[in-house]
Amino acid sequence: MRRRALALFFLFLVGITPFAAAQTSTNGPLPRDVYPDSRSRLPLLKPGAQGVDAIRLHASGVDVRWLSPLGRQLTELAILTSAREHDQPYEWSLHEMEALAVGLDPAVVDVVRHRKPVTGLTDRQAVIIEIGREIFAKHALGADTYARALKVLGKTDLVDIVSLMGNYAATATRLTAFNQQMPPGWKQLLPLPFTPPADIHPDSRSRLPYTKAQGQATPGPLYSRGLAPEGTGPGQIARHGSGMKLLEASVGARLMALAALVTAYEHNQQYDWTTKELAARSAGVEASIIDVVRHERAVDGLAEKDAAIIQFGRELFGKHTVSPATYARALKLFGERDLVDLVDLMARQVGNVTLLTAFDQR
Fold first, then answer.
1. CB of 111 within 8 A of CB of 121?
2. Which fold has domain 233-348?
3. Cβ–Cβ under 8 Å, residues 191 and 113
4. What angle do CA 265, 266, 270 make, to 5 degrees?
5. What is the mean pLDDT of each run of 10 residues along the chain (362 residues)?
6. Are the C-beta atoms of 174 and 347 separated by less than 8 Å?
7. d(CA 40, CA 77)
C-alpha cells in the first residue's frame, strides 16, 4: 500500500492525468499562459506554496463583496452568475433584489437570468458573466476568455472575482443539498420548474428544522447585512453542523476522503482529483471504490455509506438537486449533524475547485 502511494505521488509530481485508470506517460508541454514555477496561470509568489494556496496569494485580501474597487454592481453580478449556473433559486432571488438595490441594470440581470448573449454589455459585465459560465458549465476557462478577463479586470480583481464566485458556488451547494425554499410570500425569480417539496420544515423552509441563533450580533450598516431572513439560508444550515474535527471523529477520515473525491470528479478538476485520490488511498478508500467514482459505475453492491455519499454527490453536482429518496437515505445513515458537515466539506472544496479551474492549475 505504501509503495503504491509513493508511486502515485511520483506520478502526481510529473503531471499524470488523474482520470486515466493506469496512465503512465507525463503530460505534454504546458499551455502558453501557464507559468513553469507555479504550473498555473499566475506566477509563484511564495516558495513552497502550491495549488489554491498559491493562487490566493494574488488576491487583494479585502472583503470582495463589500469592498472591491470594482463596486457593488459588479460583485453582485458575479454572485448572480454563480447562482444562475448552479440553478440556485434562493441564492438568486435574494441577490437579484440586492443587485437592483445597488443599481445594477435590470437588463443585465435578465441577460444572466435567461442566459442571453453578452453583446451590448460593458467589457467588465460581459467578461464576468463569461468566466462564470465557462467555469461552472464547462469546468474549464478558455485561454482567450482568460486573457480577456485579465486585460479587462487586472490580475488582483480577477482573482478576487473568481474567489467570490467560488464562495457563492459553495453557498449554492449547501442551499441545494438541504432544498432551501423561499420564505413565505417571497417570489422565486429564476425560470426553473418547480414542484412543491414534501420534505421541508415549515419553520425553516428547508430540510433542516429551525434552530435559534446563539446570541444576537449587532446589525451592520445598510447593505452590509445578511440578506437571508432569520431561520432560512446558509446561516441557518450552518447552525446544525459541528465542524470538521467532530465529523472526522464521527464518520472517519475514509468517508470524508471519499466525499472529497466525488466532489473533485463531479467538477472534472484534474489537479484536485489527483491530490484527493492520493488522500483517499492514504485514508483507506479501496481502489475498487475509487474506480466506481472515476468511471461513473453503479453504486449497487457497495457499502451503504459509500453508496450514499457517491449518489448524493452525483445528484448535487450533476443535477443541481438532491432527490428526497437520496436525501432521506443519507440522513438515516449519517444523521443530521454529520450530513450537514459532509455537505460543508464538499462545499468548501467547491470554492477551491473554482480557483483551480479558472487559473488552469496543472
1. yes
2. AhpD-like (1.20.1290)
3. yes
4. 40
5. 41 42 55 97 96 98 97 98 97 96 98 98 98 98 98 98 98 98 89 88 95 65 59 94 98 98 98 98 98 98 98 98 97 98 98 98 97
6. yes
7. 26
